[in-house]
Each structure stands twice: as structure tokens, then as C-alpha cells.
Prior knowledge:
CATH architecture: 3-Layer(aba) Sandwich
Oligomer: single chain
Shape: globular
Number of strands: 3
Largest sheet: 3 strands, parallel
Order of helices and strands: EHHEHHEHHH
Strand content: 5-15%
Radius of gyration: 15 Å
CATH topology: Rossmann fold
CATH class: Alpha Beta
Number of helices: 7
Structural class: mainly alpha
Amino acid sequence: MVIFDTNAILRYILRDNPEMAEEVKRHxxxxxxxxxxxxxxxxxxxxxxxxxxxxxxIAQTITNIANVDNIMVAQNSVVLHALRxxxxxxxxxxxxxxxxxxxxxxxAIFTFDKKLLKHLKE
Length: 122
């Protein structure tokens, strides 16, 4: 199993270095791959803050990667739920992950954040 870091996945998504993007692609579609939640969060952050990619494009791009058969994303159902929330709100991605943990895994979330509380009650 190959664990991918943020930089590798970003090279594949952005294709800003064609050689690296092709190398990542070969592994993504050949090997059993694992992407940790922390890497997903960092990808979201970099794409939104550094590259100014729209939230819905970020969510769809990562969802497409997560749906490849040999790619395992940690806490997949939580991450996919978080990406759907992220695409349709202005919440930070970590807050969206907390919503995912609450909705997908049934966790109680303790927070004073009014925006987060509002979404947790939906």
C-alpha cells in the first residue's frame, strides 16, 4: 500500500509539473493507495487559500479521487460528507469534518461555534 502526501496529490490535481503528475497518476491507478484525512484537509486548504479554487470544484475533484476503486481515503464516508457540506457552505473544512463525524458516525460534537452548531442541528 502506498500512502500519498499532500504534495503528490496536488501535483496530480494541478498538473503543474507534467512529469510528476504522470508519475502520481501511474501509482494512483496501479497501486493500492491510502490518503489520510489530514492530507485531504491540507489539500483543501492549499487549493482554496493558495490557488483560489472554488469550493465546489475542490469538493468534486477530491470526491472523484476518493471514488477510484483502489484508493482508500481514511474515514471515507466522513470525508465525503464533509466535502458535500464544504461545497455548499462557508464553513472551514475542519468544521465540515466535524459535521461528517456527527452525521456519519453519530459522534456528539461539543462546540461554542454558532455557525457549526447551526449546521449540526440540520
